Amino acid sequence: MKGLIRNNFYSMENNIKLSFIVALFLAVVSFFVKHDAFIQMIIAMQLFIFFVNTGTSLHADVVSKWNRFELTLPVRYNDIIKAKYISFAILILPGIFMGSITAVYACVTNGFSNVQSVLYGYEFGLTLSAATTGIMYPLMLKTGTEKNEMIMILSAIAASGLPVLLSAILAPLTGGPDMKHPLTGIVSAIVSVVIFTGSYFVSVKIYRHKEFS
After folding, report:
1. How many CB atoms are closer than 10 A to CB 186?
2. Among candidate residues 72, 53, 73, 71, the one with its CA nearest the CA of residue 11
3. pLDDT (tens digit, 9 = 90+) per residue, 122-134?
4. Inter-CA distances, 37 with 88, 108, 143, 171, Å
5. 70 FRET partner, CA 20 to 30 A, in 64, 105, 148, 160?
6. Model pTM?
7. Phi-psi bin for 75: left (phi > 0), alpha (psi -120 to 50), beta?
């Protein structure tokens, strides 16, 4: 399992380095931005930019033909997919770290009254990242990586619509549709994690079918 996880990060190594550079650039940009909406978006993007590498990992496996070789390893098929999802989950850590730079700066310069705004940035970033990966990975596993950019874009659009849908459903409890209401943010993050977790089981089923095809 550790070897599989290590290989996943090897395949994403260059892209993760690029993600750090982009996330650091966004952190620097936040030093010159005072508006809460921009701070929220920057934190969300700092989390999301690392999850984009999930598509890169699958594409790298196809190009290097690792996806065929791993079938011969003395590991269970669901462990191969589990290693992928553990790797994807670990990617949230550098996102949180880079986002914390923006969050700390926002709270120090704008006061701790800005905490709720910062939390929304994390909630939306987690929602976008987990839901996008949960939708994208099984689709790429099923259809292949030839159209991975299109699949990633469509998955991100669907994930972005999740808070909109939930804000409408929760309207009676939040005084009307409000994407930035704390309840909407919390529920959106929870639902996205459920989607991410559920997609693991879908991916395992797809992988088993591909193995016997």
Report:
1. 13
2. 53
3. 889 999 989 998 9
4. 27, 17, 37, 21
5. 148
6. 0.82
7. beta
